[in-house]
Design goal:
The protein is α+β, with helices and mostly antiparallel strands. The chain contains twelve helices and 15 strands. It starts with 23 loop residues before the first strand and ends in an 8-residue tail after the last helix.
Length: 447
């Protein structure tokens, strides 16, 4: 049907205020869906003839109901659908569309009116809020809020039908007999509404509880993930597929281990107030860990002012070490500018066979790396000068022998002098360029 000026001004919702308390008040969308389908199913199951009026607000909201309303029209003979034409209008035998303008009162109302000699019923509702994620109303009723009522009062239903027919310049049949609605039917309908509303509110409350618990679990997951190494977290995440108690406790892997600490930290701890030292130390550790992860490494643990990390690729480990020292130089400039203590850092790297294992008590375990390679990285770090990087010969050879100062050093626990390689800050850029060109020529610049 074409737009009719009268229908653009009509509102059926005021009739809801006249619905008596012993009939159905409703506000939840799930309740109104049940009521709407109940009215439609009643007309179809009883094969009642008459005009079925349905307000859908928008054509796009009607489209999922095409098949249902095709069956409804075949049963009752005539269906009028009121909606804003925001999409293609389907052709359905027996269904006529009454186009509403944006802003028309009925465009904000979800309603049903059916009046017939054997049965009459009407649903009057008005939308009071919209889902911000569905501004076009594509999901009819979902995420929206309504207020309204269902009535079987023949006077109210008749008034609604006459108002619609008058606005569309249609004649309303007269002389139909409407038997009074049996009280048990009203009692049943009232109980149905109250039970459904109560159950829906229980479900809504349960959903909110589940949402809160899910948010709590996500927060706990975030805290737990921040307290575990990436390797440990990956094992936990796979625990639905792997029995951790029966999983292998250890494996041998060739890794490059990075050990760091802060030169003179003991004295800093004795002379710097904790409320200043700890925040600075946390920012420092966050900087180190972030660069480890950027280079595909993993942090094994933080030990006081030190960090232990490991990498599968020696060149990534050396690049991480160089980038850490460069980043710490900038960090220390800001510390000094703020009259706070700088953290001069020593780094030692060693490559070789490591034992990757879960270790701890039955109540608490963690994944860690163990072995001579770990010890060597720690001892090289102890021999390193602040702001430099000291690596063993295995790491140096694996990185294709980048430019470095090479020397023999006595390392605790080793009978012979070891060949070690020292990287100075002024040569960091040259070393980085060499590694990217010779060791892994296809890798992108991470920093």
């Amino acid at each position: 049907m074409n737009n009719l000026s009268g229908i653009q001004k009509l509102s059926l919702y005021p009739l809801a205020s006249q619905v008596s308390d012993d009939q159905l008040g409703t506000s939840l969308v799930s309740t109104m869906l049940a009521i709407s389908h109940g009215l439609e199913d009643t007309v179809m199951s009883q094969r009642l003839k008459g005009t079925f009026y349905a307000g859908f607000q928008r054509i796009s909201a009607f489209l999922p109901q095409i098949n249902r309303f095709a069956r409804l029209a075949a049963m009752c003979g005539e269906v009028l659908v009121f909606a804003v034409p925001d999409g293609p209008v389907p052709e359905i035998p027996g269904v006529q569309f009454v186009y509403l303008e944006e802003g028309a009162p009925l465009a904000e109302e979800w309603f049903i009116v059916f009046e017939q000699a054997q049965f009459c019923g009407a649903l009057f509702t008005r939308q009071v809020s919209a889902n911000q994620a569905d501004p076009g109303g594509l999901l009819f009723g979902r995420g929206r809020s309504y207020v309204g009522a269902l009535t079987f009062d023949m006077q109210l239903v008749g008034a609604a039908r006459r108002a619609l027919d008058a606005a569309m310049q249609r004649s309303t049949p007269h002389g139909e007999h409407h038997p009074s609605t049996p009280k048990p039917y009203l009692a049943f309908a009232s109980l149905f509404s109250k039970r459904l509303e109560s159950r829906n509110r229980e479900i809504a409350a349960l959903y909110k509880t589940l949402q809160r618990r899910n948010q709590d679990l996500e927060r706990m997951q975030g805290v737990l993930q921040s307290m575990l190494s990436r390797t440990a977290w990956e094992e936990v995440a796979a625990s639905d597929r792997v029995d951790l108690q029966s999983a292998p406790l250890a494996s041998r892997q060739v890794l490059t281990v990075l050990s760091s600490d802060i030169a003179g930290f003991t004295q800093l701890g004795d002379t710097t107030p904790p409320e200043q030292l700890i925040p600075d130390l946390n920012r420092y550790m966050d900087l180190l860990a972030g660069l480890v992860y950027q280079h595909d490494g993993d942090v094994d643990k933080f030990i006081g002012d030190g960090m232990l990390a490991f990498f599968k690729h020696p060149d990534e480990a050396l690049l991480a070490g160089l980038h850490i020292q460069r980043a710490i130089q900038e960090f220390n400039k800001k510390q000094l500018a703020s009259r706070r203590s700088p953290f001069s850092t020593r780094l030692g790297l060693a490559s070789g066979s490591c034992l990757v294992t879960r270790i701890g008590s039955r109540a608490r375990q963690e994944i860690t790396v163990m072995g001579d390679t770990v010890n060597l990285a720690s001892r090289l770090q102890g021999l390193c000068q602040p702001d430099e990087v000291l690596v063993d010969d295995a790491t140096f050879q694996a990185c294709q022998r980048p430019p470095a100062l090479t020397t023999l050093m006595k390392v605790r626990g080793k009978a012979d002098l070891l060949t070690v390689h020292q990287f100075l800050p002024e040569a960091f850029v040259e070393v980085e360029q060499f590694i990217k060109k010779h060791a892994r020529p296809n890798q992108d610049d991470v920093i």
